[in-house]
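Final report, results section. Input specification for complex C-07:
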Amino acid sequence: MSNPVKILLAEDEPALGQIVKESLETRNFEVILCENGIEAYESYLKNKPELLVLDIMMPKKDGFTLAEEIRKKDMHIPIIFLTAKSQTKDVVNGFQLGGNDYLKKPFSMEELIVRIHALLNRSQKQQKDNIILGEFTFNYTKQLLIDEEEQQSLTHRETELLYHLIQKQNEVLDRSEILKKLWGDDDFFNARSMDVFITKLRKKLKKDQNIQIINVRGLGYKLIC
Amino acid sequence: MSNPVKILLAEDEPALGQIVKESLETRNFEVILCENGIEAYESYLKNKPELLVLDIMMPKKDGFTLAEEIRKKDMHIPIIFLTAKSQTKDVVNGFQLGGNDYLKKPFSMEELIVRIHALLNRSQKQQKDNIILGEFTFNYTKQLLIDEEEQQSLTHRETELLYHLIQKQNEVLDRSEILKKLWGDDDFFNARSMDVFITKLRKKLKKDQNIQIINVRGLGYKLIC
DNA sequence: AACATGTGTTAACGAGTGTTAACCGGTTAC
DNA sequence: GTAACCGGTTAACACTCGTTAACACATGTT
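Structure output:
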């Protein structure tokens, strides 16, 4: 395994917080425990966790408010709410703030762990694999471009580039932005190198005429399909 | 805001259906919940929703069959499938008629909402595409001007300029406004550059004599057709 | 160690796109 | 009427990007 997944846990009741923390740590998660919403927000900024487990009822700042603030910084981080109340209304309220899942207290550790795994798998994998692109299916982790007839393998650079193009499908992907992200710097040579990869991708995508990588002079590229 | 987007939700498990329905309603969608495929098809005919969220495993008529039937009526309506883990790939890969996505159960509300917005945006963007202009069909994202005989490709600048002219069809498009929008500044050189593009567009549009870009001295241009 | 293979970078030339320049005609203001 | 102005058109130009191939480097194989 690579380095452990960082989880931010906000829970005001120390006994419960400690038990959950330790229990998650035995499963190879790194857990940062905070006792109220304000502390949790600061810790979020500092530690950049991959997933949040937030109690709703907390002193100083409740879990909903906290989630709302954090969502402004990160649209996609998975959030699990812990709630003592069992009414749908609160749950719905939580979803509205971009919560991904919720658990009613009292809950079992098993339940929590299942949900954590479910959300982590999704945020990492599912969105990147088996993306349908015209005739093709693009698999990011396997670096493959599949159609009925054949299966083309892509190099790492091709994969990354195509992935970013797909993320901005039908819009312009900024040249400079992608150069900085994949090559680390927007200079002359990297730019020429990128042109070469665009050519390679066009070649591999040419089977489906409806898919095209259009250049927008001075701005970047647009993947249409 | 205009009137809410109507979504047809077909889900046989009442508890899940209800929570998704309510959750979507708090996001200003209008949701029609159906408990099986037959009911859903009737509701589709009656209510004309803009988007479908279909569970695949349903009693009486499964989501896949339902989608096939609805596709015969509407080639373009966006469909999101909800699938249990085991089915996903084959079923959805086999179903490649445009505007589809799928979510594995269990899914989070946030994911569903992100995908709904993505598909709705796409279908809205398609309104920019295939605009009929006299003899021609103008496709914004593909940067094409099509008639029966041929297919002319436009550059990015030509496309943007024509698009804005079309938006103000038969009215005057202000020179200064368009210069600021496309060139960033209304100065002498940009103005001359724009004149060149007007010439180019006129050339590409000359096949249909009824379409004309008329200059309104001191104010701007007027696209008549 | 020698070789083959795969991946990404650099080089060279050609094509496409947008800008600038030059020349022209028509309109407006004095 | 004529000078100033605005826009039309064409061509030259500069710059960006496309494409191919040669090259460099790393990794794996015998």
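The CA atoms of residues 81 and 102 of chain B lie 4 Å apart. Chain B has a mean pLDDT of 84. This concludes the modelling results for the funded period.
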